[in-house]
Amino acid sequence: MGSSRRRLVRAAVTLLSSAPALVAGELHVPAQHPTIQQAIAAAAPGDVVLVAPGIYHEAIDFVGKGIQVVGVAGAEYTTIDATGLGTSVVTLRQGEPSTTLLRGFTLTGGTGQVGGGSNGAGGGICVISPACPTIRDCRINGNTGQHGGGLYISHFSDGPPAQVLDCEVSNNQATSYGGGIYVSVQYSTTRPLIRHCTILGNQAGHAGGCYGGGDFLDCRISGNHASGDGGGAHSVRTLTGSVLEGNTAGQAGGGYFDYQLYGVTLADCALVENHAAVGGGAALRSTSHTLFGGGPYAFVSGCVFARNESGSSTYGDGLSLFLQTFTIAQTWITNCTFDADSFLPSGPVEIRNCIFRNGGSPAGFVTYSNIEGGWPGIGNFDADPLWVDPAGGDYHLSSCSPCIDAGDPTSPLDPDGTAVDVGAIPFEPWIELGGGVPGATGQAELAVTGALLPGQPMTLTLSQAAPNTPLWMILSPTALNAPFKGGTFWPALDVIVTELSTDSAGALQLSGTWPPAIPCGFLIYVQVWWPDMGAEGGWAASDGLRGA
């Protein structure tokens, strides 16, 4: 957003916050109430507290009310700073219902609510059930505590879970567990949800990034540190679709650590360039022989382990598994990719549909896997997987990879309805990259069918573009990936096709075959641009596509 637009937004917000409330149930800070806490005290259930941009030197408590407290200009311009107050910046511990919302604030300077002072829990936010608020679009930064330097959630009763969505939790510290986030779940069938969050640069004795029994989905956990175990995450029950990168631990589990294995699920995650004394990527431990729901167990599925490091490769650069001999336990590792990462096993493990290359090696009962140097077992083979760009972190399979459809025939089918592929990422001939620019008719869609194989039929379709408009189609084997006109210009300027235009419905369709002379594994980036006065910068564009 340009500086002139920011000034307009600020002016509009100031005007809104300084005018009398026109809608019943709205309370404005500071126009009507000088502090946020005074507005909360005056609010009734269902009310909305609208907070104008500024820095508010206070700590707030929702005092059991199902209300919304919203920074109208967002976290970039609205801060609650509790420095010197010896408590959490925000407290929700009196049964606040699921209608409760905190949105659009930077929260800093907190030291924890439970116990008070530096030994408190939840420096930034403290949530204790049956409170079940939604916390959204917040920055929780620069707080401290014993547990949960940034955020503490204690969930010990059935009912709706607390939710933390689209937040950044960064540069917080905990003396014990959970530098960024600490989640405690006891006697409850529901678990707090942490989704689309960035957990960055936090520190703790254990669990530098996050700890506990919540469900963490689509998060980025990066650059956190624990002097003990679990640099990125520790004992998280479900960790799905997340990236754990550049985390460190003084002991075990640079990216992820767990010592109970009571139904741990680690799925569709990338664990890259983490470091620990044992288990640079992840360390799974179980020293308990007590049966719990069938015994300790763990599922690791669809994960990439790449370039992680431990004190010694014999300690498991990628994944370290240790189950004591008396433990009744099982670990399943399916459809994972190990690049330059070793696996240290101890205990029963089953490995299926996995790739081990560049020094990565398996152990245990292995089937239908691509293993450098070979490995005994049904369906195992040794071949270059032909990843798209492993140096750049892209472990998609190119169109001629021997891993396509080579997995266990009894496994569930891939999303495209074909036999399961070997490795963490099922083959997709075309990947959508985003970066489109909406025009007068909305966001256009670009799609290509057909793999990049010699003689393979292909069809390119553009829809929802401006009607009867000349087009510029750009193609390149390399990515420019540059900001342009409010979107992303994806292909380098190698081939520009200009003799094209949409029809009266704003569509274009081209069909042909992939040239036989182009070798398998060739990359191509494609995007379409056109002049459109309805677009912000006068040009609209499709999303970029990458074919391989």
Architecture blueprint of SSEs:
Layout: H1 3-18, E1 26-29, H2 36-42, E2 48-51, E3 54-56, E4 60-61, E5 68-71, E6 78-81, E7 90-92, E8 101-103, E9 106-108, E10 125-128, E11 134-136, E12 139-141, E13 144-147, E14 151-155, E15 163-165, E16 168-170, E17 173-177, E18 181-185, E19 193-195, E20 198-200, E21 203-206, E22 210-212, E23 215-217, E24 220-222, E25 225-226, E26 233-234, E27 238-240, E28 243-245, E29 248-252, E30 256-258, E31 262-267, E32 270-272, E33 275-278, E34 282-286, E35 297-301, E36 304-306, E37 319-323, E38 330-334, E39 337-339, E40 343-344, E41 349-352, E42 355-357, E43 365-367, E44 370-371, E45 387-389, E46 394-397, E47 430-434, E48 445-449, E49 457-463, E50 470-476, E51 479-484, E52 487-491, E53 495-501, E54 508-513, E55 524-531, E56 539-541, E57 544-547
Parallel strand pairs: 1-2, 2-5, 3-6, 4-7, 5-8, 6-9, 7-10, 8-11, 9-12, 10-14, 11-15, 12-16, 13-17, 14-18, 15-19, 16-20, 17-21, 18-22, 19-23, 20-24, 21-25, 22-26, 23-27, 24-28, 25-29, 26-30, 27-31, 28-32, 29-33, 30-34, 31-35, 32-36, 34-37, 35-38, 36-39, 37-40, 38-41, 39-42, 41-43, 42-44
Antiparallel strand pairs: 45-46, 47-57, 48-49, 49-54, 50-53, 50-55, 51-52, 55-56, 55-57
